[in-house]
Each structure stands twice: as structure tokens, then as C-alpha cells.
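Morning!

This is the sequence you dropped in the shared folder:
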Amino acid sequence: EPVEYYVNIILNIMDHFTIYGFCYLMKTKQETYQYFVNWLKFIERTQKQKVIRLITNNDTEFTNNKFESMLLKAGIEHENCDLNKLQQNSYIKYRGQTLEAIAKNMMSDSGISEQIWDEAIMCANHVLSNVISLTTGELPFTHWHRRRPNLSYLHTFGTPAWVNIPMELRQKGQYRTKKLYFVGYGANHRLFKFWEQGTTNIFWSTNAKFLEHVG
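The structure's back. C-alpha cells below.
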């Protein structure tokens, strides 16, 4: 089903030990609280561990009473700082710059519209998790999940694909498949994200034929 995004902000969270990162698309900074709470629950459920320390910048979404109270209740030590001056947090600064560079290169090579810059950042985050870290000497994915990834599902950003459109979403007389462009990954390696040219519509699908060498 197509989803139309209007994204202004990307929340970038990185585990300092494994260099594994998470990106979340947000419309406003006010969404930071709920996204972070959901992330904490996800970490506790999947990693069976609790976050003990959080380093953020001094922006209001991290320094308001509601956010601070939530961290205090969760037993998380919170350090506010100027990320440009904190040596310890050079990783997150470098990671942000790397994500932007990867996204720019992917969009330039593919010719994909800048309308979906946010999707390029998300895809870049997925790719970066599967590239050996100069800091740890391991894939962040392997370090975080404690297993090696199967990378056979990876595809080139912007690759055209014939995507199956479910019957309930087809208009009268519309073909079963539609030519869309690959722009990212879902929660598992079988779910892909596709962009409809000329729009900001994003489709999620597990049923697509990739045209890797077709423009």
C-alpha cells in the first residue's frame, strides 16, 4: 500500500560499542519522545539489555522535562553536550556525515528525485550497518546481532522493478504489476520499499522483479 511521506527530521541513534545505528523519519521534533520510548522498548525486547547512558545535543527535544523524567524513571544517565566539541561523540558526527555522503552518491548515480532524500538516508543507514567499521573491525550488523548477515538480498538504490500491486489497490483496468524504483528495505530482508516516479508515494512489497541492469 502506498504511503505518502512529508518528512522534515531524521532521528539518528547509534550504539557506541557496536557502531550500529538506527534512523527514524519524523515530521516534527515533537515526535522524538515517542520514537525514543519505542526504541528503548525495542532494545529491551530484542537485546535483553537496558540502556544505561545517553549522550545527546542540547536541543529542546532532549532537554525538556518530559524527556528528562522518562530517562530518570528508566535509570538512564543523560549527558547533554555540544556534539561539535565532545571528542567521545565524534563517532555519531562522523556517522551522520557518512550517511549524507552515501545518500548523495546513491541519488546522483540513480537520478532519483531529491523529494525522497529521507529514504536515501534510511537506505544508506542499512548499507552502513553492513560495511566493516574501521573502529571495531567488524560489520556493525554482526557485532549487534551476533551473527553474520546474508547479503544476497541487497539491491542497487534506484533500481527499477516490476512490483505486484494487490487486487484491492488496483484501479479498474490497471495491470497487476507496476514499474517502480527500489529505495530501501523493510524490517526483514524480504520486504522492500519502492518509489513511484513523479510522486512522493512509497510502496512496501515482498513481490517484485528487479531489473538490475535496465535503466
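Headline: The radius of gyration is 19 Å.

More detail when I'm at my desk.
O.
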